[in-house]
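[09:14] KT: can someone run the structure on this one? pasting the chain below
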Amino acid sequence: MSSVDGESAQRVATFRDSKQEGRRLFSELFGTFLLVVAAAGGGVVAALSHGAVSRSAEVAAPGLTVMAVILFMGKISGAHLNPVVSLAFAMRRDFPWRRVPGYVVTQLLGATLACLFLLAVLGNVGGLGATQPGPGINGWQALLIEAL
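[09:31] RB: done, structure tokens below
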């Protein structure tokens, strides 16, 4: 057996180890927190600074955050960072269904904590980075578009 096969077997064993669940859930909470701070925080800081943060920086920050989170904690939890990703992996049978509820709750908690952090530190500015329907788009239309 090659060392690659041995490493792969070790990763599978660790992935199945239920003792690691707390570590995995904390990883998802912290990673989601960082992602939402970067994604929503860009809009908040841009609003506070009256446009000093460019749109390209606002868009690049979340992508770079996801890359960093995947690199430093991807082996721990898979770095899903989003309930839809956890559901998609479970539907593909690449992730156990029994872990989905914990991941989803933890990701939602991480996102909520990030928004509360931004609110506490920067105030209720720029809609706290929320994407809102543009002029002429009703709420139900935006909902249907997002659902699709």
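[09:33] KT: thanks! The helical segments are 3-16, 21-48, 55-77, 83-91, 100-122, 139-147.
[09:34] RB: yep, looked fine to me
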